[in-house]
Automatic annotation (TrEMBL):
Subcellular location: Cell membrane
Any Pfam family hit: MFS_1
Listed name of the protein: Transporter
Family annotation (SUPFAM superfamilies): MFS general substrate transporter
Basic and acidic residues: bias regions: 1-30
Length: 556
């Protein structure tokens, strides 16, 4: 036993040395294999850069190759021709006009609709508009995030097809219940352009000036649609039937549809993802991807991350929450006017006793005020452009560039309400309250556009989700507040009911002033703004690495 115990120590070091030698050999072999694989991957990347990837910037991420456009690439949406951008802008704005036009179609022909379906309950007469706006509550939180996952075009074309079909369905509705259901579905799919077009302008315009003008036309489209609708429905309903009002709406909706089909996809992450798929098919290399392909694309990811983004922005982002509050009241009052004007102008029980068609004409000053604000935005943008040329730093701040317009628009909106309420008297000419609409449209449009521009500038990539949430919130207000219109105006009277709305608006009109003072600090602590800056830094780094890498390949 002693001999055996003495021999064992002599053999153990020898065995240990053998094990260590084997382990070292394995490590060396593994390192050699990894080095060989890396060398092979480097050779593959170099070959691809000289071939199919020569048009793209490329960066290695593990065993993956991430592609992106050069900043000057003509396929980048920022670099598209003016004609292509104009096509997208016109298609987007026309689809928004159709969407908002459909919202107030019943306002000029509600008497005919109620007689046809034998509806006598007054609160129910508001439902055709309220059901449509309730669809605006559902749609934006669905279509906004989906457009950031599937792309703008596919979501827009699919939803707008639904809008055309269900507008036609409203024209042939057999019962009151079916009519309301069709209005709800119609409003849901019609909300897609309202939720997406703001993001579309952020896609194609890198420069804040054209992006701001695009958003101004977008807001003008959202404002003019509901105002023009009572004119159309009032006269068509009088001369034919309420069903032809919706038939006409179907024909009008067919106008922008070919443009939407012909327009290209504008959302950069989706474009790059599709380009990467084409390259994988062309080269047979399955490691070529876009940056967005690194994200998890499971159903759980879609439901818990993409679809919840608007809600998270509402509860986590001070800017989004305040813009939602302000725009909700703006929008609710705007749609309340479609119930207020008939109370003041239409029928034997009103102040002036107009017919439905003439009452529709009373909305035209609101449209005129909305259109006139375009000149104000052009003048303001030119002023900002001159400030940029002079090197003034204030113009680089989103708050100073966008919100002064809202600081003017908010008080004007309230003044218009006071004007309408206290001038709508039998002994005062009807033109006095009607002309208040010009100031009403001016104030609404200035404030609404400034807020949307501010959100687009602050969140860029996430703009569709932020605006989708804002659209949902304001649609809730637009659907609910008109339900109280008859009771409120009968209880308070025209003067004090309008004054109450004006005072409520003055309270929230302080929000742009607060943002101007504290907005930069709010954005600095914003989770989404921090994430956006990180994504922008990564994109800039990829551009720089790709530029250096491709330049080295050219030198070789």
């Amino acid at each position: 036993m002693e001999k055996q115990s003495r021999k064992r120590p002599a053999t153990e070091p020898h065995e240990t040395a053998e094990h260590q030698s084997d382990a070292t050999t394995r490590d060396q072999n593994e390192k050699a294999t990894v080095a060989e694989a890396r060398s092979t991957l480097d050779d593959t990347i170099e070959q691809l850069r000289r071939g199919p990837l020569s048009r793209f910037q490329s960066q290695r991420h593990g065993d993956r190759i991430i592609i992106s456009f050069y900043p000057s690439d003509p396929e980048h949406p920022n670099n598209w021709s003016r004609k292509m951008k104009l096509l997208l802008a016109v298609a987007g704005c026309l689809s928004v006009i159709n969407s908002t036009l459909g919202s107030s179609f019943p306002s000029g022909t509600i008497d005919q609709i109620s007689q046809h379906f034998r509806v006598t309950n007054e609160p129910q007469l508001v439902l055709p508009i309220s059901c449509y706006l309730m669809g605006y509550v559902i749609g934006p939180i669905l279509f906004g995030p989906l457009s950031e996952y599937l792309g703008r075009k596919s979501v827009m074309v699919g939803a707008f097809t639904g809008y055309i079909l269900f507008t036609m369905a409203c024209a042939v509705a057999p019962t009151w219940a079916a009519f309301l259901v069709f209005r709800l579905i119609c409003g849901t799919v019609a909300s897609a352009p309202v939720a997406i077009v703001g993001g579309l302008f952020a896609d194609i315009y890198a420069d804040p000036k054209p992006r701001g003008l695009g958003m101004a036309w977008f807001t003008c489209a959202t404002s003019c649609g509901p105002v023009l609708s009572p004119v159309i429905s009032g006269f068509i309903g009088q001369s034919t039937s309420w069903r032809w009002v919706f038939g006409t709406g179907t024909f009008i909706a067919l106008i922008p549809f070919p443009l939407l089909v012909l327009a290209p996809e504008s959302y950069l992450p989706v474009i790059l993802s599709r380009k990467a798929a084409e390259l994988r098919k062309e080269t047979g290399n399955q490691n070529i991807i876009a940056a967005t392909d690194l994200e998890k694309q499971s159903l759980k990811y879609i439901l818990t991350v993409i679809m919840t983004r608007p809600y998270r922005m509402l509860f986590q982002e001070t800017i989004v929450a305040c813009v939602c509050l302000y725009s909700t009241l703006l929008y609710a009052i705007y749609y309340l006017y479609f119930e207020v004007y008939p109370i003041i102008f239409q029928g034997p029980d009103s102040v002036y006793g107009f017919s439905p068609g003439i009452t529709g004409l009373a909305f035209l000053p609101i449209a005129a005020g909305s259109v006139f604000t375009g000149t104000i935005f052009i003048a303001w943008d030119n002023y900002c452009q001159r400030a940029t040329a002079k090197g003034q730093t204030w113009v680089k701040c989103e708050e100073y560039r966008r919100l002064p317009i809202a600081c003017i628009g908010g008080p004007l909106y309230s003044i218009a309400m006071f004007w309408l309420g206290w001038s709508a008297k039998p002994d005062i000419n009807y033109m006095a309250p009607i002309m208040s609409g010009f100031l009403f449209g001016l104030g609404y449009f200035l404030t609404f556009t400034a807020l949307l521009n501010y959100v687009s500038d602050a969140y860029l990539t996430f703009a569709a989700s932020a605006q989708g949430m804002a659209s949902t919130c304001r649609s809730i207000g637009g659907a609910l507040l008109p339900l109280a219109s008859n009771k409120m105006y009968k209880t308070l009277g025209n003067s004090w009911a309008c004054s109450l709305l004006g005072l409520l608006n003055l309270a929230v009109a302080t929000i742009p002033f607060v943002f101007i003072k504290y907005g930069d600090k709010i954005r600095a602590s914003s989770k989404f703004c921090v994430e956006l800056r990180r994504l922008q830094d990564e994109e800039a780094e990829r551009h720089e690495r790709g530029r250096i890498g491709n330049r080295e390949d050219e030198e070789v």
